[in-house]
Amino acid sequence: MTRWYTEKKKEHFYKEAKRVGYRARSAFKLQQIQRRFHLIPKDGVVIDLGAAPGGWSQVAKELVGEHGLVIGADLSAIRPLEDVVFLQGDITKAETIEQIKDVLKARKADVVLSDMSPDISGNYSVDQARSAWLCECALRTAAQVLRPGGHFLCKIFEGENTKSFIETVRQRFVVVKTFSPQASRKSSSEVYIVAKSFKKLYKEANISFG
Asked: Is 155 assigned a catalytic role?
C-alpha cells in the first residue's frame, strides 16, 4: 500500500508538471516551500544552484515577476529559459561564484536556492557525505552573494552530517527549520533546510565548514 501510494504520488506530480509546462516535478516542491515560508519576494534576486533542468528557475521567475532577476547555475547545460540568466559551471569552484557576482554587478541576492544532488553511487553513507558537501558549497556561495536579511534553502540527504551542517547554518541565519514538502517521495531521505534572515557577521574569507 505504501509503495503503491508513493508511485501514485510520483506519477501525479510528474503528470502535473508536464501539464503545466514545468521541466521537473521538483517545481512543486519549491512552490510548497514558498507557500509555507515565503522565501522569494516579488521583484527579488534569486540564485538557483543546481538549476538543471530548470524547474526551480521557472517557479522562481514566476514569483519574482518581470522586474526580478533569476540566475541559474549548473554543471549541465539547460534549454534556455525566458528571462532567466543561466551559467554553466561547477558551483564548487570559485570561478563559477565569480561569474554569478559578475551578473549581479553591485546587487546582492535576496535568496539562494540549492536543489543539488550528488551522482548516486548506491553507497548511502558516501552519497550522504557528498550531499552534505554540496550543501556546504551552496552555503559558502550564499555567504558571498546574499544581502543581510536574505534567505537560503538547500536540500540535504539525512544522515550523520546533517546535524552538524544545520548547526553551521544556525550560526549565519536567525531562523533555521527543516521541511519535507508533500511533493517529495515518502521513501526519500531528502530534507530541505530553510534558513531565514542572513546575519553578515564576519568576513566571508574566514568562513570554515570544518
From this structure: yes
